[in-house]
Every structure is written in C-alpha cells, then in structure tokens.
Design a protein that fits this description.
Length: 84
C-alpha cells in the first residue's frame, strides 16, 4: 500500500472556508451584559428540588432555568407589592 504524497501536499495550508456556516463568534447578538452578583440562600432540599423541577418545566432543563424563574417571580412580586 502506497500513499499518494501529491494529494497530501495539495491539502497542506489553510483549510477551505465552510460553506453556508455562520460565524457564531462575530455574530454575537446577545443582549448587553450587566453586572451580576450572586444570591445564595440555604433552603430545605425538598424545596430546592421542587423549585428546580418547576424551573425546568417553565424554562427547559438547561443552564439558567432557576435564575429565569427567580427573576420572573421577582418581577411578579414587584408588580404586586411595590405599586406607588
């Protein structure tokens, strides 16, 4: 079995551009970032598990679901309790 070196030399260098692919790094369309601070509370394990399950059902079982549920609850609390 012999290797065709001419084919290998033709492949040497920069790889060809991907066809039909978007550049996910330069097309960063995320919202403007804001400073985040941690909020940590100690709650019973059962409450944590219920909250996690509720967040997963509401926002999908992915990173950030509990944060999204907390922010939704906070906005509802403010709307109900902080009326001027």
């Amino acid at each position: 079995m012999t290797t065709n070196i001419a084919k290998l030399k033709a492949l040497k260098g920069t790889p060809p551009k991907a066809q039909g692919q978007t550049d996910v790094i330069s097309n960063d369309n995320r919202a403007e970032t804001m400073e985040l601070k941690p909020l940590q509370v100690r709650i019973p394990k059962a409450v944590f598990e219920e909250f996690s399950e509720c967040a997963g059902k509401e926002f999908g079982f992915s990173h950030g679901a509990k944060k999204k549920l907390f922010l939704k609850m906070w906005e509802a609390f403010k709307a109900q309790n902080m009326k001027a």
